[in-house]
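Onboarding guide, step 5: your first structure request.
Type a short instruction followed by the sequence, for example:

Predict the 3D structure of this protein.
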Amino acid sequence: MDYRSFEWRIIVSLILLLMLIQVGGYFVVLQFNRTIAAATLVDELGTGSQVVNRLLAMRHERLQQAVQVLAGDFGLRETLASGDLPTIRSMLDNHGKRIDASLVILSDTSHQPITLLMPEGGAPPVGVDPHVLKLASTGAHIAALGRDSGQIYQLISTPVMSPKLTSWLTMGFAMDTVLLSDLGDLNDIEISLLARSETGVWEGRASTLPESVTEQIAINLMRHTEPAWQLSATGERYQMLSVPLHAEGEAELVMVLGLSLERALAPYQKMERVILMMLVMGLLLSAVAVYFITRNMIAPLNRMAHLDSLTGLANRRLLGMAMRRAEAERARVGTSYTLFMLDLDKFKALNDTYGHAAGDQILKTVADRLRRSLRGTDIVARQGGDEFVALLPDASKDIVERLAEKVVSALTQPMEIAGNSFTIGVSLGIAVADATNTLAPDQLLHLADRALYQAKSREVSYVLASTLEVDFVELKSAR
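The system replies with structure tokens like these:
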């Protein structure tokens, strides 16, 4: 049994713990960066919405001045007073083209449309809602002309006085993708304009984003009640900000500003790559440091805990662990194991006569001869004093007999220590754990001890315990 596996467990556990802490910290940094990036984008979008609203307001003021100048034109008022509709339409068409109006509406004092023109061409909207024209006359200047109209207009409405109010002149300027692109380019943001009908369904009316993304915006508007929210579409993530516009009846208009999260995260990702490289280097250095610290600090303690300090053999603790593992293997797959318990003859007399130094050298020599006599898979332990135990896993009866003879022969050879020749004897008790002998490890150890006692009392080299009782069968005597 390799007691050093404990050192590797400590090393692996510490490295995994450090890895967990550092990787966990790295992911915290990633999440923190994304939170900061999203918050930064929300601030940028908030600033962008103020800029866009200000630009629309300035555009409204400029267009209103142009429409008021047109409404105050004497020729226009004379033409309107004549009631000649073809002439009125021709004049309105010319003036609309001059100020780049998308549509021109002349309505009566109750805002009922008299005529509608499209100076830029195209099909005129159907079912113009007088309520929208009335709202435009009070300053609600962004709206659709009707519930079936897909186009959103910035409406400029001014009264025509001759000298009393005779009609209302309304000019509409399309809130289309071109305008949204111009507004967005100033802030480097994406802008979408959506309308919600009486049924509560959002529909995109104009957008600087692809149609597929606009459709996702419409779907997500139904889910998010907060102004700021995030959208994942077509493999890209956006930070969005919803900005409500003027109401048109029971329908609603909203302008959604968006910025790409990936673009915002680009500077952070450069830093994250550096942090990742530092993390990998830190983990490698930590692994090296843990390895050397463990081997230099834990390894000596581990040896003290599992090895006999004099002989370097396994101690009682390591032997007990090995026996429990061997018993678990026997119970699982039926693999037998054998215990040798050895006791040196004449050792006490030699130790008393020649001193502890000679006695220690004898014990070291015995330990070395035991290791060389047994197999590499066998575990040799010092129980204490001159008593040794060997654990032989998966050994047949023939192997047990051969190894017993080999051990006895090796230990009875003369030893040259400090210029003196010593010959010691050995007694060996043997106990086998197999399918018929299912003793617990400590009971098996006790049985081997009793076999050793029988070997000493009978003055034979080794004895095999054949039953759980004191029934021992002598295998061979070397005396």
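Each response can be followed by summary notes, for example: The longest helix spans residues 5-71.
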